[in-house]
Amino acid sequence: MIQFDYSLEVDMGTEKRTYNPPKEIPKELKNIFRIQGPNSSGKSTLMNIIAIASHGLTKGKIPPSIRSRMEELVKPGYKDLEFEMTISDPVSKRALKSSKKKGETEVKVRESLDGGNSFSIIIADNFEKKYNLIYDIPENPVGRLNELTGEIKTVQNLFLGKTREFQRYVEQTSNEIGNSMGPEEIKELEDKLIFEEEALKKYNLEPEKTELVFLKKLMVAYKLKEYNDKAEEAERIFNNAKKEIKNSDDSKAEKEYSKKTKELSKKVQSVSSSKFELVTEANKCNYPKFDELKNAMDGIGRDANAVIKRGGIPQSCVDAVSEVKNFADSISSSSKGESLRAMLEVIRVLDQYVDKNIELPEIGLLDEFLQNFKKKYKEMNSEYDIKSLKMISQKAKDIIGWVAEINQLVPTIIPPPEDKTESFEKEQHLDDLESQYKRANGNRSDYVSKVSFEMGISLVNLDDVINQCYSILGDEYKEKSFNEIKDAHDSKNNSIMRSESEKNNISSRTERLREKIIKEKSKQASPYIEYKNEIKELQNQVSELMKSMNSANHKLEAVERKSYGSFQSDDPFFKSVWSYLGKRLKNIRHLDKEYDVSEVDLIDGTIITSDKTIIHLSDMGTGQSQLSYLKGLLSADDNRMVIALFDEVSTMTDSTLNVLFQEFEKLQKEGKLMVGMTVSPADEIEVNSYGV
Amino acid sequence: MNESTLDYLLGIAETDIQKKIIRLFSETISSDADLDVLLREILDYIREVKQ
To answer: What's the rounded Cα separation, in Å, for the pair A66 and A56?
Structure first.
């Protein structure tokens, strides 16, 4: 039973039309039926929907032109289909329920194995394994008989793939057990493994590696010590050179010169400041030889260098100063001078009592008296200022004393020798020594930062490290030079490398032995170990079968080309193909007689019947040819249920078609037919049902 | 598998062992057959034939 309903909306641009099943076609049909009707009456639409409901969009034997029409109904576009369909087979009790919603592309297909009580989704791949969907328009049926060979080619390729996979499996099994060892040989391997493992244990290189590490440490420590010694020596040499230059004779002379020059400068400065005051005071006292004094003072010189240059201060200057001193002293010691000194003393005393309104006997008011007394003093002092005279005497005395000291000092001031070449060379030498010191210091720093520090050695722990190395390596190393330690290190390193290489070789051999033993033991465990000979035979047989199948593929291509080509026409292969096609057709109706088909020779274009009648394909009627072709399609018996949809079977007469429906009914009885449907044109819609 | 198709494939095989292989494959063509089982069966067959 087929129950269905659908709605097809077609967008025509200007309007949308909706198509439903025509009322002449019942919505419940038998599984085998024939629809005749005019064009565009919906018969092909129903056929397309049955195919879509049977995963026909991706699976089944469907020519591309038909599949393209089916896709139009499902893909988004101007058509939008919605349907529901249930196909129940009364014989096998299988049922299919399919549906599609409007606006969606997905077609849901469910299957029931219990007469439609419960359904579950069946995907396309599984569907194809259970159902054989055949949808065809049998045009040019004679030509398309050739397509039947395509089916055997497909199966043949399937077998070829399967055989190839099996061949690989056999090869793999053969490799696993091939060249396998006996138990005694495996025992030998195991003994060898034990021997090698024991040998491996002897290679304990750790003590030697420790020794190597300390040799390296000692080398680095020695090197650092060397750098340190060099840096310290360079520093010492540089500092000594600096000190020597500082303490050299030239330097002493210079120092002395500098010291005396400073002393002279100080004295000349004192003279300079005093001579100014001397001249000023002399001027106040109207010193008659003022100009001579002034000239003599100018001749003293402004600074120490000028004095040194002149070899001291000239005697004439000393004489001029002495003369002005005598002048001041002589006036100061005269009676007039004594009176002025006494008056000045009185003024000094009385000044303490001014503004106290003191009245003295015989004198009267003190303030008035003092005022007049000062006036009198001023008048008397106007010629020689007593203060200035005192100042002149003092300054002149000072100057004379300083000049004497200066003149004594100047001859002792000897400038240091001015040998610039020697000085330059000394400076250059000092620079070189400083560079050497800096370089040595830099080398030491570099070595610490780049080498020794990584090994935990610094200037702080240098001695400790060296002592630690001695304690590990032995006291004999205290006597060894760096080069001797390096030789010992290199020798030890080479020895370790040799030992490691030997150890690695033994280790690799051990590993290989271990793997081989495991492999050999697994071969012993293989269930096919006793089938070594049979596997060898099977390998040959599978290889030959592969060759035969490949050759058969080439011969099938010759059949498709309808030419034997380089192959012999009596090659048994071709006869087997003709027999295969004969079995597919089974029987044919030609003219007014039914024949059992024995062979179909596609290259010669003949059918050979069981009674040896030869019928040329070109002589067969179109309807008969169609029937033969469709029967060939149906006879692809592989236990799958057939869904057969044949469109446009217009060239077949009712009697010819009846043979096809008989074939459908036969398949249905065997439980091998789900749907058998044909469509052909007619003026009116008519539905005929067959079978159960 | 269709008997006629099997007959055709058997026609390609040249020895009994090859025919046995094809027969075994035809029984399992639509399933993922256990190659180990196939191998064991064919090896037993070869041993039987060779004895």
So the answer is: 10
- Range in A86-95, A122-131, A336-345 with the lowest mean pLDDT: A336-345
Beta carbons of B19 and B13 less than 8 angstroms apart? yes
Q: Which amino acid is at A227?
A: Y
A with B: how many residue pairs have Cβ under 8 Å apart? 95
- CB-count exposure of residue A394 (10 Å: 0-12, 13-18, 19+): middle
Can you list the domains of chain A with their CATH numbers? 2-137 (3.40.50), 252-416 (no CATH)
Q: Measured between CB atoms, which of A165, A552, A635 is closest to B12? A: A552
The top-scoring range by mean pLDDT among A62-66, A164-168, A171-175 is A164-168
CB contact under 8 A, B2 and A636: yes
| pLDDT band (50, 70, 90) for residue A140 | low
Contacts of A436 (CB under 8 A, 6+ apart): A234, A237, A238
Choose the closest CB to B12 out of A170, A537, A548. A548
Q: Give the minimum alpha-carbon distance from A159 to chain B in angstroms, rounded to a whole number.
A: 7
**Which of the residues B7, B37, B42, B51 would you substitute to probe the A interface, choosing the one with the greatest number of A C-beta atoms within 10 Å?**
B42
Q: Say if the Cβ atoms of B50 and A129 lie within 8 Å.
A: no
CB A153 within 8 A of CB A553: yes
Q: What is the pLDDT of residues A514-562, one digit of tens each?
A: 998 988 887 776 778 788 889 999 999 999 999 999 999 999 999 988 8
ipTM for the whole predicted complex goes beyond 0.90 = yes
Residue A601 in 3-state DSSP? strand
User: Which structure tokens are listed for A322?
Assistant: 């002495």
C-alpha triplet A58, A64, A67: angle, nearest 5°: 50
The minimal CB distance from B5 to the residues A152, A163, A535 is found for: A152
Cα–Cα distance, A543 to A39 (Å, whole number):
57
Nearest chain B Cα distance for residue A192, angstroms: 35
Q: What is the pLDDT of residue A33?
A: 95
Residues of B in contact with A544 (CB under 8 A): 14-15, 18
pLDDT in tens, A437-459: 999 999 999 999 999 999 999 99
- End-to-end CA gap in chain B: 31
pLDDT of residue B31: 63
Nearest of A64, A69, A39 to residue A52 by alpha carbon:
A69
**Beta-carbon separation of A541 and B38 below 8 A:** no
pLDDT tier, A476 (very low <50, low <70, confident <90, very high otherwise): very high
Give SS3 for A100.
Answer: strand
Average pLDDT, stretch A594-617? 89
Q: Write out the H or E segment, with its range, that includes residue B3.
A: helix B3-12
Q: What is the mean pLDDT of residues A245-253?
A: 70
Measured between alpha carbons, how far is A485 from A205 in angstroms, rounded to an integer?
20
- Please list every residue in chain A whose beta carbon sits closer than 8 Å to the beta carbon of residue B49: none
Which residues in A have their CB inside 8 Å of a CB on B? 129, 151-152, 155-156, 158-159, 162-163, 165-166, 169-170, 173, 527-528, 531, 534-535, 537-538, 541-542, 544-545, 548-549, 552, 572-573, 576-577, 579-580, 583-584, 635-638
3-class secondary-structure state, position A121: strand
What whole-number distance in Å separates Cα of residue A182 and Cα of residue A373?
A: 158
3-state helix, strand, coil in chain B (%, to 5): 75, 0, 25
- Check CB contact under 8 Å for B50 and A537: yes
Instruction: Give the global pTM.
Output: 0.44
Q: Do B9 and A159 touch (CB under 8 A)?
A: yes
Res. A188: pLDDT tops 70: yes
**Count of other CB atoms within 10 angstroms of residue A56:** 25
Query: What does the mean pLDDT of chain A come to?
Result: 87
Q: In A, which residues are within 8 Å of B46 by CB distance? A: 534, 537-538, 541
